[in-house]
Amino acid sequence: MPYDQPKIACLVVLDEPSHYNRFGGVSAAPVFARISGALASTSNLFDDVLVTNALDLEPRGERQLKAPNFLRLTKEAAMGMARSLDMNVLCRGTSGEVVSQTPGPGVTMSRDDVVRLELNGSPESTQRKRVPNLRGMSIREAKRHAVEAGYRCHITGTGVVKSQSPKPGTQSKSSVIKIVCKSRAVERG
Q: Same structural domain for residues 121 and 59?
């Protein structure tokens, strides 16, 4: 995955599945989906790959669809995508990349709903930004908070965030927060 520019291959093998689970779509596909989802939310491997095409854009019922992913797109690219999908979009900010959107990617919405996008200013901004406190969060939560604040994450380890650099509350010109995670199971041991 992803299928058009592969970065990871995954093989799911089930030894002697039950009669009901003998088909790959019932047994192996859900395992692959969980592995893929975990990798996408806990690593930087797919930060440059947008999941818009993977989302279900077909109507649900008469006027329902899943919100596409506008995150990390420039304002011009986001507006172009919105026009091609015939969606209503409202941007806060005049330039830069999309750092947050409501409703979030993949959330079911009506075709008539408005998607609200927040831009981070200039994509190469030298402006100092306040670093959010990511400690104690899951990797998924930490990545979401970092993106909303205009940062990307460089992640080491798995589990919950134990430390980060730069420190929370400081102002930084860097666009990357380095976080170190430890498994919750390790804490109890």
A: yes
